[in-house]
Amino acid sequence: MTVKTTVSTQDIDEAFLRLKDIVKETPLQLDHYLSQKYDCKVYLKREDLQWVRSFKLRGAYNAISVLSEEAKNRGITCASAGNHAQGVAYTAKKLNLRAVIFMPVTTPLQKINQVQFFGSDNVEVVLTGDTFDHCLEEALAYTKENEMNFIDPFNNVFTISGQGTLAKEIIEQSEADGVKFDYLFSAIGGGGLISGISTYFKAYSPNTQIIGVEPAGACSMYESVVVNKRVITLDHIDKFVDGASVARVGDITFDIAKHNVDDYVQVDEGAVCSTILDMYSKQAIVAEPAGALSVAALENYRAKIKGKTVVCVVSGGNNDINRMKEIEERSLLFEEMKHYFILNFPQRPGALREFVNDVLGPQDDITKFEYLKKSSQTTGTVIIGIQLKHHNDLIQLKERVNQFDPSNIYINENKMLYSCLLYTSPSPRDVEES
């Protein structure tokens, strides 16, 4: 039997009919704040308002619903620590199928609980492996041994077709309002979303520029396209943007994206954090890191989109509230507003007052002060965090710190030291998405 490896607009239209009474038609909203900020018209496709708070339900349901009755009776499996797992769980409950969902042991409890909530008694969650890759190995072995059906999160034409229904919605909604888009920004993880979207837009809105957005620490699609011969596997990725941090994109999605995507943007993880906070405070939108990628990329395109009409896909809103402290921290570092030093501090009365008076600016604030150890009777090693009011005050701050202790260490420039000092209890996230 020939395995289908391409996606057509007909595939997406057929998926749209399957999903018509299953998924929510999410809003396409003109965002006045972003439109004013970037001097253009910015629309948001709000997939964060989907039933499972991400677009993943579209692909999961479509891929599962096309299975034969005999295959459905054997059950389904997947490996995921994020939105794909929730989409599979929701579908399993809806179609009354047995599903075994493999998740890394490092998966936050909030996500595990969501999968159980959507899947109820139809779903068994198996926690295994410290990383997604290890989890995937276990899932594939179990699937083969039990003759079940593995539902791939992106490298499957039916998954891609399901994600593509989002593009069909955008085009129908925009045509109803007489809107034509010059640019579309969408996150890329494994490539399922961008493949489905670009396939439909290239057929029905060919003048729209498709911009794929990846986190700077996990731009596996861009790196593969640059090579232009094969899909590459990144040796190391920053997993913070968990919904879009993959070491290797799909072979099918790579073939589609390299022909359809007009440009790629790599966004610093700190910029993503600033965007999450901005969207929450200015627009009351709770976006997960991958969901904020498309909006964060607008800054890179500020000059090009001026006066244009733009749509950003807010792909998900499953943001664990326990991550907000880390998000704020990364944002402040990216904006150059928060700075950490290790220095030798005199162990005598009045030393802290002297530091405050001589080193801190009038609007600077100490956010952390901790003795690491007493190195002698006269000095102690201290880690100190300082938050600025204006990032351009950093040069003067460094000069004053150097005068106070010429042997000080500026921690911000040392990622390993920074991680050791500030994230003593990290929660690794290893996911495949988008």
Structural account:
The structure is a single chain. The chain is an alpha/beta fold and about 425 residues long. The chain has 18 helices and 14 strands. The strands form three sheets. Strands 1-2-10-7-8-9 form a six-stranded mixed beta sheet, sandwiched between helices. A four-stranded parallel beta sheet has the order 5-4-3-6, with helices on both faces. A four-stranded antiparallel beta sheet has the order 12-13-11-14. The protein is globular, with a radius of gyration of 24 Å.
Identify the notable features of this structure and list them briefly.
disordered C terminus; 18 helices; globular; alpha/beta; six-stranded mixed sheet; four-stranded parallel sheet; 434 residues
- Rounded to the nearest angstrom, the distance between the terminal CA atoms is 28 Å
Please tally the β strands and state the result.
14
Q: Which class do the helix and strand fractions yield?
A: alpha/beta
Largest sheet, order of strands side by side? 1-2-10-7-8-9
* Biggest beta-sheet profile: 6 strands, mixed
Cα gyration radius (Å): 24 Å
Strand content: 15-25%
Low-confidence stretches: 424-433
Count of helical regions? 18
Q: In percent, how helical is the residue content? A: 40-55%
Mean pLDDT: 92
3D shape: globular
